[in-house]
C-alpha cells in the first residue's frame, strides 16, 4: 500500500481486482479446491467494503469461476445487529446488502450477526423482515419532511426486491447455527435436485 500510495480500501481493491487473485483463479484456486470433498462447505470471507461489490467485477468473476467448476454458491451478507437498532440504520443495512444481492446474482442470505449481544430483542425484531409501510411511516418521522419522496423511493426499492430480510444469528444458541446452515443449504439446492429429492 505504501509503495503504491494507497489507503486500505484502495490497496484491497488493487489486490483483488488485479493480478494477485483474478489472474490465478484457474491455477491456484482450482488446485486448492481439489483438496476438499464434494459435501464440504467452503467459506470465502470477503471484507465488508461495499466497493468490492459495487465498483469492480472481481467478485462476480470469482463467483462465475466457482459456478463453471460446478460448485453450488450462496452469498451470505453479515450485518452487525448494532447497525439495525432504528429505522434509519435498518434502511441503510438493507441498502448495503442490495449491491451484493444484485451484482452477484446468487441465492442470498442476509444475516444479522451478534444477536447474543442484544439486550432488548424487541428493538430489532421489527427490522428482521420489515413491513414496508410501517418502515416508511417511521422513516418519515425520523427525517425532515423534504425527504419524504426520497424515503418513499428507498422503501419501494427495498420492497421491490422483497428479498431483503435478515436472519438473526446468535452464536450462543446451537439452534441458531443449525437454522442458518439449513437455510444456506436450501438456498444452494438447484430446483431439479430439489424436485428429484421430493
From TrEMBL:
What the entry lists under Gene3D superfamilies is as follows:
P-loop containing nucleotide triphosphate hydrolases
Segments crossing the lipid bilayer: none
- State if Ribonucleoprotein is listed as a keyword: no
Q: Quick check: keyword Lipoprotein in the entry?
A: no
What highest taxon heads this organism's lineage? Answer: Eukaryota
Query: What keywords are annotated for this sequence in UniProt?
Result: GTP-binding, Hydrolase, Nucleotide-binding
Q: Tell me, how does this one assemble?
A: Binds to RNA polymerase II (RNAPII).
The UniProt similarity line reads: Belongs to the GPN-loop GTPase family.
What PANTHER family does UniProt report for this protein, alphabetically?
GPN-LOOP GTPASE 3 (PTHR21231:SF7), XPA-BINDING PROTEIN 1-RELATED (PTHR21231)
> Which purpose does this protein serve, as stated in its record?
Small GTPase required for proper nuclear import of RNA polymerase II and III (RNAPII and RNAPIII). May act at an RNAP assembly step prior to nuclear import.
Protein name per its UniProtKB record:
GPN-loop GTPase 3
Native species: Hibiscus sabdariffa (roselle)
The opening ranks of the lineage are: Eukaryota, Viridiplantae, Streptophyta, Embryophyta, Tracheophyta
